[in-house]
Amino acid sequence: MQADKWLQPRDNGLYCVAADCYIDPTAPVNRALITHGHADHAIGGHHSVVATAPTIAIMRTRYGEDMAQTVEALDYGHTIELGDPDDPVSCTFYPAGHILGSAQILLSYRGTRVVISGDYKRQPDPTCPPFTAIDCDVFITEATFALPVFKHPPIEQECEKLLQSLALFPERCHLVGVYALGKCQRMILGLRALGYNQPIYLHGAQRRLCDLYEEHGIRLGQLIDVAEVADKSELAGEIVLAPPSALSDRWSRSLPEVRKAMASGWMQIRARAHQRQVELPLIVSDHCDWQALLDTIDEVSPGEVWITHGREDALLHQLTTQGVKARALSLIGYDEDATD
Amino acid sequence: MEAFSQLLQQLYFTSSNNEKSRLLRHYLAHTADPDRGWAIAALAGTLKFEFFKRNAVKNLMLERVDPDLFAMSYDYVGEMSETVAHLWPDATTSIELPGLAELIDQFRQANREQVKSLLVHYLSGMTAEQRWSLLKLGTRGLRVGLSARSVKRILAEYGDVPVSEIETLWHALKPPYRELFDWLEGRAEKPDIAGAVTFHPVMLSHPLPEDKATQLSVEDWQVEYKYDGIRVQLVITEQGKALYSRTGDDISESFPDVLAGIEEPGVIDGELLVINNGKIESFNALQQRLNRKKPSKKLIAERPAGIVVYDLLTDNDEDITPLPLSIRRLRLEHWLSRASADHLLLSPVLSVSANAQLQKTYADAAQDTGVEGLMLKRKDSSYQPGRPSGQWYKWKREALHLDAVVMYAQRGHGKRSSFYSDFTFGVWQDDTLLPIGKAYSGFTDEELKKLDNWVRRNAVGRFGPVREVRKELVVEVAFDAIHPSTRHKSGVALRFPRFHRIRWDKPASEADTLANARALIIE
Q: Does the pTM of the predicted model rise above 0.90?
């Protein structure tokens, strides 16, 4: 059965008619399938939630143990049936390579296969298994960085930049703006991979999720809360990770000679870096750049591509030019700025 | 070229001036001639030619990318060089990049067709950052937050010489500045620039201390008006002529009418103003000329610029700065009669024979549009660059004041980047507030903290970096003058607005009205 008959964009997100459930709904609903734990995809207050175990753990950390009435953890590669038992929608999760617990969701109904990829990337990430291409009729993709200007360098190169700056400015506290979930831990591992074994300091907002990653067996090395450092002058020449909003906040005033850095895919654009008065822009993204989006669509080679949030105009134009059948869903409420 | 590009990236993202200085000095110490001299030229804006046109760059790009994707990308990035830098296909094999001097030379020697293939060759072999640097360099659009003045200051720090010496030499030297570096690094004497058309560092005044006015023995002082224009220096030698701003920027191109018809050699200190048939117009009239890098004939005819001259540094080719002001004044009068130019007016010496008369002259000066107070100069003062004490005083007329309501706030820069420190304020027209100006000074650090706190608690809206606040806080703003203005919705513009007092006590409804503000305009 044609996909758009049973899977449709609604005000609260993508809705599966045949299974009576939403995928990543932006308001509380009866039944939600969640691709990953970023706050614009996973909110609290749904009646029932299906997600990977790490995503459930992330949601509980953020919204409390009672974040939903019923919760079902689904492992990658396992299938459950949803909706009418006599006419079911089968649902399988596959890795998306975006952050810990992130999944693509394959929904299959009356012989039509749709992959909702959520947010995904193709660069290696030690905190989650890599994206796998799943054969499907409809591939639903994000388009956060869907302009040919976006090219994401390897994370080693950007971490190296940070370490070089640390060597050049040893008296300055390097305050790096990172999103607390995913980016923070990936940066830490990127630095560790280059042999940086010093303690890394954390803004209070980063702590719980780092602990959660540790609980999932991801070793982040020694992390110290800034709040526990009595003499802040000791932070000269150290790396402090904080949410982007704290970069210009009063909080940063107690740190010695702050050198502001920010790790985000948006940092490739000078005006974006200037806007935040960032001195050291680090281009680190948990999304695909333009070429990775095109390569992925080519690899998946679906019958049709649906484009969710981001710069859908450019991707739609490119796919149409290539002769790939594509449409933009214009889902609203996904705040790509906050999460990359 | 790699090192230069890296320097640009670092400078671009660094906000502290000390840090910028450190970065540039490090580059100078580790880069050979002539590359570093060309880097200085590019940064200080003395690289006077374009390698290629923006449009040529765009056309080359469009041969390599879908025009719709280009348009969408440009729309998103908002800037041509950066868009092209990111969009240009990355190299499959890297190429050897020449040094900066060699690169500049290649572009300078190339004809139009060769320029294209050179550009393609380099863009294809460069990283995105290097492409951005080349495109900015080649279109003379290089802005990395470093003024020409800062470059000179950093060169002075590099060679441990006074910045005034760099400024004296600056306009007589040409890129790649080998003789400058030879001197700065102690391998040669200071370059000889006798007879060259070059800026001479100016002498500055101190504000007149409050109790001083009544204590002066007026017979020792030359009293003149303090004009409300911009300080300039006119330099005429056998080799040519130029007009400089007080910071040494060559502004000849913007004021061809000032230079026209003067051939008499000399270095003249004076005030640039709009002078219409011998009548000095307000700063507001001059503002329209200052905004134009290359004024139209029409604008020149409507707002002809001239100089009120008040000092002479070089008479013919004789340096007369060691002579006392009283003598320089006589030499100036003679020079002016030889120069015989209608648009040069002599700044009159005001006759003041008693202290009480000085007070009255000061009071009268406040009523004149082209004047913002008095200058008091010791008759025996030699002309000393910088701000020597006890020699020259400025006695500005009293500031004007208005009670205005804070409407918007924005974060500051550098040290103040975590504080809301830039404020837009307005006055009432009926029951609407109209913004009349912006201020970011006049408060203490303690007050800044309180203001910052107030903004955070009273923000009601956000427009990008600008926060709208509750219309509840009254500040008494001080400013030097108020002019009619068509550029502002309120129809008025303030000169040098700053905070005078924060009126935490005063209700917003009791702030001033636009009519009150208009009443302060001197017609």
A: no
